Every structure is written in C-alpha cells, then in structure tokens.
Amino acid sequence: IAALLHPVVNRLQKRGISRQRAVAELFGVAVLGVVLGLLLIMPPAIEQLSNLAENAPTYTESIIQTADTLYVQYKVELARIGIKENPIRSTSGPVADAVKRVLTSLKEFLIGLSGQFLWLIIVPLSLIFFLIEYPQIRAKLISLVPNQQRARVNEMSEEILDIFSQYIRGLARVCALYGVVSFILMMLLGVKYALFLGLAAGALYAVPYVGPAITIAAAVAISLTSPGNTLGHTAFVGITFVITQFAFDYLITPRVVGGAVGLHPLVNIFALMCGATMFGIWGMLLAVPVAASIQLVLGYFFPWLVSEAAADQLHAPVAAPIAPPDDPVPQT
Q: DSSP string of 272-289?
C-alpha cells in the first residue's frame, strides 16, 4: 500500500510540502472519509443487507412463481428446444439456501470488521511509517543488486510500481463512479435496497465480467420480486443496467484505467482467465497489472517481443535470390 501511495506523496512534495506533512494530510483525508462512511453509509447498508437476507426465501419463491407463469405461457415453444419442465423450480431449494447463506455470510463479515479493532490501529500506523521511510527502504533493497544492474532494476521497479499504482487508483475511481451511478439508477427505477446494491455494485465492478453480471442479475431479481412491478418494468431495469455496463466497459474504463496498462485485449482476457483459474477472485483483481508488469520485464530483456518491427518482419517481402552471373565470354 505504501508503494502504491508513494506517487501521490511525491506529487504533494513537488508542491513544496514536506514528506511528513504530505503523509499526514493524506491520512487525514482517508480517516475523514472512513469516519463519514461508517457514520452515514454503513448503518443503513447493513440494515438493508439484514432485511434482504431475512426475505431471501420469500423473494426466491416469488421468482419461482413468476417462472412458473412464464413456463405455462410458453410451454409449447420451450418444449421445442428441449425444456420440458421449469428449470428454476427443480433447483429452488438449494438456490434459496445458497443465496441466504451468501447474504448472511456477507452481513457477518461486515459486522465482524468492527471487531478487528487492533488491526485497524496497527495497519494504518505501520503504513504511516512505511510511507515516510519508503525512499530509504527502497534504496537499501536496490543496493543489494550488483552495481551494473542497479540502474536497470531501479527503472524497472519504478515502472512496475507505476503500473500497479495507476491501475488500482484508476480502478478505484471507476468502481466508485459505477457504484454511485448504480445507486442513482436503482433509486430512480424504484429498486429496493438501492444503497446496499449500489455499494455492492461498486465493489463487484473490480471483478471483470463476473461482478457486473452479478449486479445486473441482482437488480433484475429484486425488481421482479417487488410488489407492483411488471415484467415490462423488470425488463427496462435489466436493459438500463446492460447499457450502463457497456458504457463503462467501452467508454469510461478504457479512458481511466486502460492507459496505465497497455495490454492487448487478447492478452487481457488470457490474463483474467489464468488469474481466475489459479487464484480465484484475487487472481482476477490483480491479473491485469501483473500481466502488464510481466510484459514490461520481458520488454527489457527481449525488446523485439514488444516492438512493432517484429510483427512487420513477418510480412516483409522476401527478396529473390540473386542468380550467379553467367561465365563471361572470352574476348579475342
């Protein structure tokens, strides 16, 4: 965390502020934000989460009844594609129990954070000292490298930290904006638990593809089970969030986060799949900056891998072999 915040402290230092004062101001803003969040946002969010967990079986039954109605209405068409019974009703018990367990676990996790009081003191204090002494610590670590490699290692480490720092800060801004937009849309569309679902949407957006899909499914499910909402209203909620998702994925996120990484889309997808397979959620969160860092290191040792000239050489025309000259005719 100190390494990721180091560029922010550096920018404050360039304005003529001492490093100690810069760290103090940064922590003052962070503490103020945390206190305001705990006082204003967390109590109603936990209350909404508790209500959602208690009513999960009721909402599940409502979804099953709606699915039964749709199945009876389109029974002939569904039979033609091989669906001969309501697929939701056959798994209603396990699905309801799983949803209730997930919501209850999330509620207990949020409440349990307040019990980790000792770590809430140790981690920030340690971070303060690491931030203040970060340049000295980094210099001592680089001094362990042989002299002839120190300049290159220093440059590589700075660029890698810059990749992680820019990516995480950009992702945090996008997640916060996505959470606010989701909360406002849910309020305008009359979706219950808008505050909790907005906070969850912002946090889940950090998990590519999976997180937004969960947000859309949750908004549609809550809208479908709310009294008075029609199927048309539920479809409008789903379409609205799908459009919002596409707007963030293709317009906002590439501008805010994409420039810090510089990965090809295929490499990006491959990195996400590898991260999810090997390390689950954390792997998906860190897959993109880790892949960009690996690409950076490979570029230092094998420059031709990241140069456009390497690709151009594959399509360069091959020169025809020069035929040996004929034997000269002797002159008389």
A: HHHHHHHHHHHHHHHHHH
